[in-house]
């Protein structure tokens, strides 16, 4: 019998605690298969953030530092400066990276720190119960935006991949989604590219991944998945916003 | 350094901290500018690269303490320094260092507050340093130098204690000891045995088990056990690591208690009192945590009265009262900080006479 699909070595064989339909498990798998593909598992230090993704170490079989809310880029800066020959990545949600940790991500990116950032954008604070995030769409109802997010009261959704693309320290900034097989393959390639940029050139790369939170969106998994294409991508366009290796890639 | 004859040099307190840190093996500094500790990042930025280390000016106090967290988790001796308002911002990270059992040195060349306050010598951060400061049930090693020599020596000692107990350490100075210049000896790093850092994250590198540095414990009983473990370390510090200077205590009827800059001034007042024939001595806590409570309890058996001197309106005096436990009177004299409010030896001598 020929094996055509198996669990990556970097991914543990354990039951998941994530809600049905949540994309974290899928993104964890993409991370793990890229660590395997690039031969990085034994030299990787993951930096977990606060929120649903804090249990990174429960699923990925790599060394992990847990960081305070939003501070993963600062923790990763200290880690990578000490162990510059290791592979370091942060895994952060939108409340973490685009709200409380805005300062840390912008300055780590601007310094061009030699680590990779995976930014899971599901337009809400998942673990605390579905409050409004900086990425919450206009009109989106949340625990703290009853009646929908209002631009006048709450401001507009922040587009982090575009924002960070402006900074000279960034080698690669892209936005992908994991709502369809085609998008999953694109996301896989984006993560691989980001990881290669660190491994081979010591460059900072940023991958924003649009994903679902069916529980807090109040949707079944299929409807939540459809929402990514119907509502999120129009606000958060997929694409490469900076690629220092390819001038054509820059938009 | 490591030469047999210590170099004798004329340094500012803040500069002595830097040379102490480098001699102790610190190779990473993360910080953000604030007065009156600016000499520390400035000197580190020029000195650390000479020793193969790195200086990084962070975008904020919050970022700098978390850079320290990452560096410490990866096994480095690392430090940050700041002054009172900046230390408030670092408290989140200090709590995480404590919860994650990470060593690291935080230097607080404290200034006056609350709020922006001023840059005068102040001891208004005593509560914040020894009672937690950040959230959660934790203790931190706190050392209080009162001279430039101690700024150097205690910086090295703080790193060793911090590694031994896997606990953050604070060097609590103030603008008086930070800014004044004295001749000191740059002594070689003391030889001490420290436990191997078999917990740091390095990438698995063929290891069977992954290593995780964390402070989140959600399983039944896990967090309680973790907190009891943290408290057991604090208890071991209380039993083994208390440091205090005793000044003219053998027959003292009145015992002054003061630390840091206040103790320097008080020492002169004690000498004046002795010259006037008063039986006055002083206990100077060098470790503020662990606090010399046993020293004070013993002194309460013989002395008649205690007088606590602080550059604030009364913080350490609460710990002095707890240690004396109602057996003797504890008087207090303090001045809240501000330009021109540093007490003179004559002023403290008057207080001694009143309390005697």
TrEMBL record, chain A:
Domain Thiamine pyrophosphate enzyme TPP-binding: 63-209
GO biological process entries: cellular respiration; small molecule metabolic process
Pfam families per UniProt: TPP_enzyme_C (PF02775)
Signal peptide region: none
Keyword tags: Oxidoreductase
Gene3D superfamilies linked to this entry: 3.40.50.970
GO molecular function (one): oxidoreductase activity, acting on the aldehyde or oxo group of donors, iron-sulfur protein as acceptor
Listed SUPFAM superfamilies: Thiamin diphosphate-binding fold (THDP-binding)
Protein name: 2-oxoglutarate oxidoreductase
Species of the source: Geothermobacter hydrogeniphilus
From TrEMBL, chain B:
Species: Geothermobacter hydrogeniphilus
Residue span, Pyruvate:ferredoxin oxidoreductase core domain: 252-346
SUPFAM superfamilies: Thiamin diphosphate-binding fold (THDP-binding), TK C-terminal domain-like
Entry keywords, A to Z: Oxidoreductase
Oxidoreductase is among the record's keywords: yes
Protein name according to UniProt: 3-methyl-2-oxobutanoate dehydrogenase subunit VorB
Limits of the Pyruvate flavodoxin/ferredoxin oxidoreductase pyrimidine binding domain: 20-196
Keyword Oxidoreductase: yes
Single GO MF annotation: oxidoreductase activity
């Amino acid at each position: 019998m020929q094996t055509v699909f198996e669990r990556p070595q970097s991914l543990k064989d354990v039951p998941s605690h994530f809600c049905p339909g949540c994309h974290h498990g899928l993104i964890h798998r993409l991370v793990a298969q890229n660590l395997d593909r690039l031969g990085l598992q034994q030299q990787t230090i993951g930096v977990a953030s606060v929120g649903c993704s804090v249990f990174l170490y429960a699923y990925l079989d790599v060394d992990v530092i847990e960081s305070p809310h939003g501070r993963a880029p600062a923790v990763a800066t200290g880690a990578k400066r000490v162990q510059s020959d290791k592979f370091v990545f942060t895994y952060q949600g939108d409340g973490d990276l685009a709200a409380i940790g805005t300062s840390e991500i912008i300055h780590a990116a601007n310094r061009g720190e030699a680590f990779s950032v995976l930014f899971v954008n599901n337009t809400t604070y998942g673990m605390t119960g579905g409050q409004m995030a900086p990425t919450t769409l206009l009109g989106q109802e949340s625990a703290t935006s009853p009646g929908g997010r209002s631009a006048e009261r709450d401001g507009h959704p922040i587009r982090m991949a575009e924002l960070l693309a402006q900074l000279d320290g960034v080698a690669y900034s892209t936005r992908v989604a994991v709502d369809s097989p085609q998008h999953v393959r694109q996301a896989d390639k984006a993560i691989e590219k980001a990881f290669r940029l660190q491994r081979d050139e010591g460059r900072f790369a940023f991958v924003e991944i649009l994903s679902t939170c069916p529980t807090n969106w109040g949707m079944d998994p299929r409807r939540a998945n459809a929402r990514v294409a119907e509502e999120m991508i129009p606000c958060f366009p997929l694409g490469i916003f900076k690629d220092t290796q390819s001038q054509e890639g820059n938009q | 350094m490591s030469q047999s004859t210590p170099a004798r040099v004329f340094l500012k307190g803040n500069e002595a901290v830097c040379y102490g840190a480098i001699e102790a093996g610190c190779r990473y500094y993360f910080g953000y500018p604030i007065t009156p500790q600016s000499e520390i990042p400035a000197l580190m930025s020029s000195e650390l690269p000479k020793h193969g280390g790195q200086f990084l000016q962070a975008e904020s106090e919050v970022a700098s303490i978390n850079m320290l967290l990452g560096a410490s988790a990866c096994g480095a001796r690392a430090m940050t320094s700041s002054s009172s308002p900046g230390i408030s911002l670092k408290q989140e990270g200090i709590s995480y260092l404590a919860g994650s059992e990470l060593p690291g040195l935080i230097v607080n060349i404290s200034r006056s507050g609350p709020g922006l306050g001023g840059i005068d010598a102040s001891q208004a951060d005593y509560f914040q340093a020894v009672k937690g400061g950040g959230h959660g049930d934790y203790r931190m090693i706190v050392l209080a130098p009162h001279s430039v020599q101690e700024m150097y020596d205690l910086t090295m000692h703080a790193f060793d204690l911090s590694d031994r107990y896997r606990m953050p350490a604070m060097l609590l100075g103030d603008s008086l000891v930070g800014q004044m210049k004295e001749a000191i000896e740059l002594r070689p790093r003391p030889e001490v045995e420290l436990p191997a850092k078999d917990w740091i994250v390095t990438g698995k590198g063929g290891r069977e088990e992954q290593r995780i540095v964390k402070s989140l414990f959600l399983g039944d009983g896990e967090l309680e056990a973790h907190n009891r473990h943290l408290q057991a370390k604090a208890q071991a510090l209380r039993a083994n690591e208390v440091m205090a200077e005793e000044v003219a205590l053998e027959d003292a009827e009145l015992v002054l208690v003061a630390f840091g800059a206040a103790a320097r001034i008080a020492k002169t007042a004690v000498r004046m009192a002795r010259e006037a024939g008063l039986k006055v001595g002083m206990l100077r806590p060098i470790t503020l945590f662990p606090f010399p409570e046993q020293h004070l309890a013993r002194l309460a058996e013989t002395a008649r009265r205690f007088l606590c001197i602080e550059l604030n309106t009364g913080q350490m005096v609460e710990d002095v009262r707890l240690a004396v436990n109602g057996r003797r009177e504890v008087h207090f004299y303090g001045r809240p900080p501000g330009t021109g409010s540093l007490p003179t030896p004559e002023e403290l001598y008057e207080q001694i006479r009143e309390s005697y």
